[in-house]
Amino acid sequence: MPLFQTIQCNETTKLLIWEITESFEELLSKVVLKEKTQRRLNGMKSQMHQRAFLSVRMLIQEMGFTDQDLHYDEFGKPYFDCHNYISITHSHNFAAIIISHETVGIDMELQREKILRIADKFVDTEFNYLNPNGLEEYIKKLTVIWGAKEAIFKIRNEKGISFKDHIRVEDFSLNENQTGASLHFDNLIKDFDVHYKEIKSDNFDEKFTLVYAFEK
User: Fold this and answer.
1) Is the model's pLDDT at 74 over the cut of 60?
2) Which residues are CB-contacts of 154 (< 8 A; sequence separation ≥ 6)?
3) What is the pLDDT of residues 136-167, one digit of tens each?
4) Would you give the distance in Å from CA 15 to the centre of its chain?
5) What is the pLDDT of residues 80-128, one digit of tens each?
6) pLDDT value at position 203?
7) Is the N end or the C end of the chain the one with fewer CB atoms within 10 Å?
8) Phi, psi (rounded to 5 degrees) for 206
């Protein structure tokens, strides 16, 4: 079933993951889109991107909302006209949303060696606890750090925030599923609870890292 996993994060927060196995036509037949959304979909050059976009609408429907309920602010941040916060992510064959009464952000990333080449662009203080000698663990930890910073950026969504200079992720173990992080930006310090887990499908060899963060 394409609804790959549902996670009840806490009393008012639910996370849903969709495994994208359907064709574009199949997904399109199952959702009702408002005119603005249809135009955005038509403008996408990649069919994989289109399928991910439609999978997000499937997840929203699973939660009892429709495309009519979903809006985007001037910075591209999604929101509902109600007390629920929403954050959206997609990566290759997965899409995920998190809906909560709390301020929340989500990110999902494919674990791959490519992240080694860009580590110095988003990692700063975290190098103090990272060990590059164990390659697989190093890649997994870098992916958690990137995901945490992406989730926090989605929460704050302010121009000028640098992953490397402004967001710090505390030391953590892959054997656990939670750590802390903080944003230091424009005379503001904000703390976050960060949760992470590995996602793997029977249909694909790749492993993914799912990260979500709550603003304290």
Assistant:
1) yes
2) 77, 87, 105, 106, 107
3) 999 999 999 999 999 999 999 888 999 999 99
4) 10
5) 988 899 999 999 999 999 999 999 999 999 999 999 999 999 999 999 9
6) 82
7) N
8) -70, 150
Angle formed by the axes of helices 135-156 and 114-122, nearest 10°: 50
- Residues counted in the chain: 216
Sign of CA dihedral 96, 120, 152, 49: negative
- Residue type at position 66: T
What does the block give as tokens for 144? 């958690």
pTM for the predicted model, two decimal places: 0.95
DSSP states of 67-122: GGGEEE-TTS-EEESSS-EEEEEEETTEEEEEEESS-EEEEEEE--THHHHHHHHH
Helices 35-42 and 47-62: crossing angle in degrees, nearest 10, is 150
* Amino acid (1-letter code) at residue 192: F
Strand-pair partners of 102 = none
CB distance 190 to 183 below 8 Å: yes
